[in-house]
Amino acid sequence: MYPGNAGDQTRGWNGRPASRDKYRPGTTPPKSFGVPVHRENHTANRDLDPLDAIEAGFIKKLRLRCKASQASFAPYLNTSPTTVQKWEQRKKQPNGPSLKLLNIVDEKGLDALG
């Protein structure tokens, strides 16, 4: 027991609530934890064209058209050669940034990323 506590277990040594009581069930935590939350409509991303889905056979044709091995093709897409191999074997599907980069390579060639 700390001096000045007088047996009050809910207060810490400095008179404030003990940290273990801060977010107990039944108490409400601060709404933003000190960080302002901005909920705005981000319309900038809506102007982008939808990404074309790419088939596994096409990925290999695209890579061969660029005259690149899996190991040399992967860094352009910020991925590993194993991932490129899995795409070509239809074990995985590209998504997100990799899919966008594949579309860029298809339209403009591998030099557009390098």
Summarize the biggest pleated sheet: none
Terminal-residue CA separation:
65 Å
- Could you spell the SSE succession in H and E letters? HHHH
> What's the CATH superfamily of the domain at 56-112, by name?
lambda repressor-like DNA-binding domains
Provide a count of the helices: 4
Question: What is the CATH T-level topology of the domain at 56-112?
Answer: 434 Repressor (Amino-terminal Domain)
Mean pLDDT: 74
Write down how many β-strands occur, each being a DSSP E stretch of 2 or more residues. 0
Please write the CATH class name of the domain at 56-112. Answer: Mainly Alpha
What's the assembly state of these chains?
single chain
Main structural class: mainly alpha
Strand content range: under 5%
pLDDT < 50 runs, ≥5 residues: 42-46
Architecture (CATH level 2) name of the domain at 56-112: Orthogonal Bundle
Rg result: 27 Å
Shape, principal axes of CA atoms: elongated
Helical residue percent band: 25-40%
Write up what this structure looks like.
- There is one protein chain.
- The protein has 114 residues and is mostly helical.
- The model is unreliable at 42-46 (pLDDT under 50).
- The chain is elongated.
- The protein is built from four helices and no strands.
- The protein has a domain at 56-112: lambda repressor-like DNA-binding domains (434 Repressor (Amino-terminal Domain)), CATH 1.10.260.40.
